[in-house]
Amino acid sequence: MIYESLTCLADEINDYFRQKLKINEDKVVLSAIINQDGTVAIQGENKVIITLINVEKEPTAINASGGGGRTLSNSSSPMSINLYVLFASYFSSANYPEAVRFISFIISFLQERSVFSQSNTPRLPAGVDKITLELESMGFEKLNNIWGMLGAKYLPSVVYKMRMLTFDTSVMREYRPPISQASDGK
User: Fold this and answer.
1) What residues contact residue 96 under an 8 Å CB cut-off, 6+ apart?
2) CA distances from residue 162 to 16, 40, 66, 74 in whole angstroms, order as listed
3) How far apart are CA 71 and CA 65, in angstroms?
4) Which of 41, 51, 53, 184 has the highest local Cβ count within 10 Å?
């Protein structure tokens, strides 16, 4: 559900860029910024990277205890989560103004359309009724910690909180990407 929701968000922003900027290529990709070995995770430059930086349980969601106090764990009851998503502009150093420009476009798009529902986003995954995105204000210390945790140098970026994905084991299913045919002459 997380992968499908983030992919849907990337697709929606790419559609916005195609319409607004009259470009054909996808500028937004779902990816880590740095691989575990310290190398850059994406191929090429001039992209906006969506990276999941945290997952938290929604503290205001109704829990199995029926109110305040400790939550009684019940694996069959739905659980709501929030995702913290980093949008980072990975552009060449000679193209820094474009990096800043694309962060502005992301903020503008998510200001205009902060709620994604089944009615305004047909590609929203089944089982997801609504996603709400809120701009997170990060101080210098938090930003430093995030970029240190990622193992990367700072890029023009913005963090959003994606609210209220509900995990329900009755709707979870395995995702298998399509297998591409290898052209080995067989």
Assistant:
1) 156
2) 19, 25, 25, 24
3) 5
4) 51
Per residue in 59-72, pLDDT tens?
875 544 444 444 44
Give residue-wise pLDDT tens across range 28-50: 999 999 999 999 998 888 999 99
What is the amino acid identity at position 39? Answer: T
Q: 105 is written with which tokens?
A: 């476009």
pTM value > 0.85: no
CATH 2.60.40 fits 2-62+78-167, yes or no: no
Report d(CA 17, CA 12) in Å as an integer: 9
| CA 132 – CA 100 distance, rounded (Å) | 24
Domains of the chain by residue range: 2-62+78-167
Q: What is the DSSP letter of 46?
A: S
Residue 2 CA to residue 55 CA, distance in Å, equals 10
Tokens of 70: 């400790």
Rounded to whole angstroms, the Cα distance separating 111 from 122 reads: 20
CA distances from 57 to 70, 72, 84, 164, 165 (A): 14, 14, 11, 9, 10
